[in-house]
C-alpha cells in the first residue's frame, strides 16, 4: 500500500497536468499553429461552364496539427474570428497563396484566385494593402485577385462599404459569397458594386428536385445580370446541375463534379 502522501502527490500532479492541457485553449493553439506554420491551403478549381477549362481557383485554408490531425476551416475560423486572431490568419493565407500561386498568376494573366475574408478583415485597410502586395510581388494584375465576402459581413459592418469601394478602385475584384443565405436585400446589393456573385450550394443542390428553389435561382441569376455581376455556382455535384446552370447563362462553377479542393502541386498539374 502506498502512503497517503504519495497518493495525494500523484493525484495532484496528474490533475495539474490534465488541467494544464485543457487550458491550452483553441485560440492559443491557433497562435502556436501560426508560429509553427501549420496552416496551408488547398485550391478548388473554378471551371468555365462553356469550355470546361479551369479558369480560376478558390483558396481554402486547412490546419495540419502537430499530432497529424487535419482541422477543417469550419472548426477554427469562427474561433479565430472571435478571439481576434483572424487578422493574423488572413495575413498568413495571403502569404501562402502568394507563394503557391504567384507564378501561375503571372504566367496566366486571365487566371484568377479568390481569397475568403472575414468581417474583421474589412475593419482596416490592412487587408487591401496585403492583397495589393500579393499582386505586385507576383506580377499579377490586381483584377486577378478576388476578395470573397459573405452577405453577413456587410449587414453590420459600416466600414465594409468604404473598404470594398477602395478595393475596387485599386483594381481588385470583389465577390459576394454564399449568396442567398444571409440577409441582403436586392436594394442593399444595388447600393454597392460587386464584380461577382457566388450562388450558394444550398440552391444548387435543390436544382434537380425543387421547382420553387429553381425560381429562386433564376431570380438570383436575373438580379446578377441586372447588376452586371459575373456568376459562380458553388457545390455543383451533378451533370444535371451543371447543364441547368449553363443553360441559364451562369459563367463559372465549382464543385465535386469537377474537382474537390486539392494541394497546390496537384492543382498546377491539372492546370497544365
Ligand atoms: P465557402 O467559402 O463557402 O467554401 C466552400 C466550401 O464548400 C468548402 O469547404 C469546399 O471544400 C466545399 N465544397 C466545394 N465543392 C463542394 C461540393 O461539390 N459539395 C459539397 N458538399 N461541398 C463542396 P471548406 O474548405 O471546408 O470551407 C468551409 C468554409 O470555411 C468556407 O466556405 C469559408 O467560409 C471558410 N473558409 C475557408 N478558407 C478560409 C479562409 O482562408 N479564410 C476565411 N476567412 N474563411 C475560410
Ligand atoms: Ca468562399
Ligand atoms: Ca461559399
Ligand atoms: Ca459556405
UniProtKB/TrEMBL annotation:
The keyword Membrane applies. GO terms for molecular function: cyclic-guanylate-specific phosphodiesterase activity. Residues 23-272 form the EAL domain. The keyword Endoplasmic reticulum does not apply. It is found in: Cell membrane. It is a multi-pass membrane protein. The chain crosses the membrane at residues 1-20. It catalyses: 3',3'-c-di-GMP + H2O = 5'-phosphoguanylyl(3'->5')guanosine + H(+). It comes from the Bacteria. Its EC number is 3.1.4.52. Keywords: c-di-GMP, Cell membrane, Hydrolase, Membrane, Transmembrane, Transmembrane helix. Its main location: membrane. GO terms for cellular component: plasma membrane. This is cyclic-guanylate-specific phosphodiesterase. It comes from Pseudohongiella acticola. The chain holds residues 258 to 529 of 529 of the full protein.
Amino acid at each position: 500500500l502506498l502512503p497517503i502522501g504519495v497518493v495525494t502527490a500523484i493525484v495532484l500532479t496528474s490533475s495539474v497536468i490534465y488541467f494544464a492541457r485543457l487550458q491550452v485553449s483553441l485560440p492559443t493553439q491557433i497562435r502556436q499553429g501560426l508560429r509553427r506554420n501549420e496552416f496551408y491551403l488547398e485550391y478548388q478549381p473554378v471551371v468555365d461552364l462553356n469550355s470546361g477549362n479551369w479558369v480560376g481557383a478558390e483558396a481554402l485554408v486547412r490546419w495540419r496539427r502537430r499530432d497529424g490531425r487535419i482541422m477543417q476551416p469550419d472548426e477554427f475560423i469562427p474561433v479565430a474570428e472571435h478571439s481576434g486572431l483572424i487578422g493574423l490568419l488572413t495575413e498568413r493565407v495571403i502569404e501562402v497563396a502568394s507563394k503557391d500561386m504567384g507564378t501561375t498568376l503571372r504566367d496566366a494573366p486571365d487566371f484568377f484566385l479568390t481569397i475568403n475574408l472575414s468581417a474583421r478583415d474589412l475593419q482596416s485597410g490592412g487587408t487591401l494593402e496585403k492583397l495589393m502586395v500579393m499582386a505586385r510581388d507576383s506580377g499579377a494584375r490586381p483584377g486577378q485577385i478576388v476578395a470573397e465576402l459573405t452577405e453577413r459581413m456587410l449587414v453590420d459592418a459600416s466600414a465594409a462599404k468604404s473598404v470594398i469601394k477602395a478595393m475596387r478602385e485599386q483594381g481588385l475584384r470583389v465577390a459576394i459569397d454564399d449568396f442567398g443565405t444571409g440577409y441582403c436585400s436586392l436594394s442593399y446589393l444595388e447600393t454597392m458594386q460587386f464584380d461577382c456573385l457566388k450562388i450558394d450550394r444550398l440552391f444548387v443542390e435543390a436544382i434537380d428536385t425543387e421547382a420553387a428553389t429553381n425560381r429562386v435561382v433564376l431570380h438570383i441569376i436575373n438580379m446578377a445580370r441586372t447588376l452586371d455581376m459575373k456568376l459562380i455556382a458553388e457545390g455543383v455535384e451533378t451533370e444535371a446541375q451543371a447543364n441547368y446552370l449553363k443553360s441559364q447563362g451562369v459563367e463559372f462553377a465549382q464543385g465535386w463534379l469537377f474537382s474537390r479542393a486539392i494541394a497546390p502541386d496537384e492543382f498546377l498539374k491539372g492546370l497544365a
